[in-house]
Design brief:
Length: 150
């Protein structure tokens, strides 16, 4: 008799501990999902900030006189930063490829890309306005380059 009561008590305690463990697991999963979403929002904000810097630098480039090399390098740098943040975003692979190709084109073909900065500005503004055509425009800019020349 005493043995039955002891086993029942142990089973009740085991069920209570199992319930507490399951509740704790559910809470931690919820916290993880919430934090993941918050981090993704931060990455998306930084991505948009870097693209905003690209637009600002293109405006400065078009108004500048004399040596524009440093300003052009900043444009390429900001576009590369945007590509880095695009890499961190989930479900963003196709757009990431286009942003990285554009950043690479700015670095490898500065003479050709300096002539296409206004088109790039339009594309980036469309991206910032959440229009999918912005990515298409950026891809068209890269495709229009003579990749064998400078």
């Amino acid at each position: 008799m005493n043995q039955d009561k002891l086993m029942k008590r142990r089973m009740i305690i085991a069920y209570i501990l199992l319930g507490i463990t399951v509740i704790a697991l559910i809470v931690f999963i919820g916290l993880y999902i919430d934090e993941t979403q918050r981090v993704q929002e931060t990455y998306r904000k930084q991505y948009r900030t870097e693209l905003g810097h690209v637009v600002e630098e293109i405006d400065i480039y078009s108004e500048a006189e004399g040596d524009r090399t440093m300003i052009f390098n900043r444009i390429a740098n900001y576009m590369g930063n945007a590509g880095a943040f695009a890499f961190l975003l989930e479900d963003f692979e196709e757009s990431q490829i286009i942003i990285n190709e554009t950043a690479t084109a700015l670095i490898k073909y500065p003479e050709q890309m300096s002539e296409k900065l206004e088109d790039l500005k339009t594309a980036v503004n469309d991206i910032l306005a959440d229009l999918d055509k912005g990515y298409d425009e950026a891809q068209e800019i890269v495709k229009s380059l003579d990749l064998k020349g400078y």
